[in-house]
Amino acid sequence: MRLANLANRCAQCIPMAFLALLACPVCATPALALDRNAFTFTRYDLAVRIEPEQERLSIRGKITLRNDSPTPQKTAVLQISSSLQWRAIRLAGTTPADDKQLAYTAIGYPSDIDHTGALNQAVVNLPAEVPPQGTVDLNVAYEGNVHRDATRLTRLALPADLATRSDWDALGTHGGAMRGLGYVAWYPVSLEAVSLSDGNAVFAAIAAWKGRHTESQLKASFTLITPVGAQYRAICNAPGSGATGVCEYASLGNTVPAFAVGEYDSSSKANSVVDYFSDDAGAAAVLSENVEDLALKVRAIFSAFNSKLELVELPEAGSAPWESGTMLFLPFGGDRNAHRDAILAHSLGHTVFASNRPWLAEGVASLVELLWQRQQSATATVPAQLSRLLPPLVEAEKSLDAASAAPLVRATDDVTLRLKSLAVLTMLRDMIGEEKLLAALKQYRAADDHDPSYLQSVIAKQTTRDLEWLFDDWIYRERGLPDFRIESASPRITLNGTYIVAVSLENIGTAGAEVPVIIHTDKGDVQQRLEVRAKSKAVVRIEVPFLPLQVIVNDGSIPESDISNNRMDVKVDLH
Questions:
Q1: Which of the listed residues 329, 352, 375 is the one where a domain comes to its end?
Q2: 63 assigned to some structural domain
Q3: pLDDT tens per residue across span 85-106
Q4: What are the DSSP E strand ranges found in 146-285?
Q5: Which of 242, 254, 322, 385 is the least crowded, having the fewest Cβ atoms under 10 Å away?
Q6: Interstrand relation of 272-277 and 309-313 (parallel, antiparallel or unpaired)
Q7: Is this structure's pTM higher than 0.85?
Q8: Has residue 128 got a pLDDT over 50?
Q9: 467-471 — which CB contacts under 8 Å span 24+ positions?
């Protein structure tokens, strides 16, 4: 989500951090020179102990850091949520008895990567310099109480009820649910301070961290200390975790580790698994029937099956749903509505198509949702939906430095994964036809996808069109957006009384696209599509049966950096 700026946010934080450094003269000099991006967290092995009655989380475990900077490093930075406290940081030995206690300084550090708007940062003095590409193993211990906290959102003047709908992460007396980086730093990370008041900074920082940690692994083993007779379970979004209480993530670039704990029962049907609180069986049954009904409609669009959708009940009514692949966290109960159905349709999209490429997995789920919405309403046309959905992508693209931004094939931020991938797939749909695109996606096999060009080769079997330039501009490289400009619109009257309008277009943008060109007449519209590569011109001649009034380029289905030059009146000399 994108939030309004609050000018004094950073003005408040910087003096606090500066005063904290002054209070600790010994730490001030090294803190100013800290490289928080020097180390990559390559491996986490964490024992997670949860005491619901105490609303308490305790974590012990080993983390492995690799120095990915070009210089030796003798200082490591470990950050956890400000709601947690450091208890110990040790250099890991061959056995626990060989561990060596390390000196560290813990200090509050402002950052909106955590729902509290702050982190508990430990600056750790290592016993020896770690050379470039060298590693160090640390045993860590930290604990605390995690409650609902929307500080970072209310600080931006967002209404409290809306803020807490989004930041619902907490542990309560009956359990709770918690997401990782971007919500609660319940596993150690290291990032520079970022604020939601600073445009896209938080989302860009998280995306960059995920990009660096695509090969990093996390294992979390859960122990639940529950009242006598209570049957608590830990449910997490790691593939194949089941009811073992052990969750293993193969890539922190693809998945934000999340878990829920409580007295959960489960029910399973053909297309879904529902995890619900034991006293909420009625609402679970209603939701399960809802999902099964939607699944039939989704499979009518994309008749494939890879997995079931797992729905995990959140304890607080009104909490905003949150999706992670084929798992959806949401509150149960309430009346069925179009908004929730759309969310469920998107999640069901993940069950009919699987890919190890985040952009493709998310893009196909978004495409399935879009086609499902079209199925529900005659007015929900694809261009109309895209014109409503794509503006956040345009704003995000404008803020990117194309020279350093990750291309779609390596993207990790939510806006790019959801919206740019959708835009690319709908462009392919318009160019080769919906039937051929869906046929190609059904032939796609994740196990065979070892090269970024694999999808292109699958689609090539469905068409003879040259699509290399499209993949190059939109997927393999970050080229920015097109910018179409109508140079001229020249009409002439034919002998049979129709009109031919010659439309000259220039794409002054840095990415090409096949764009709709529309002639608006006094009795309706006529449309043709025109391929216009980046930094080039093209002409299309469109015949219309009635008096042409205006030319429009782009119906909103192509993300474009500037739409102010997309219309031109047509002047016809009738004499």
A1: 352
A2: yes
A3: 999 999 999 888 999 999 999 9
A4: 170-172, 175-179, 217-224, 233-236, 246-249, 258-262, 264-268, 272-277
A5: 242
A6: parallel
A7: yes
A8: yes
A9: 467/428, 467/431, 467/432, 469/512, 469/533, 470/424, 470/427, 470/428, 470/431, 470/512, 470/513
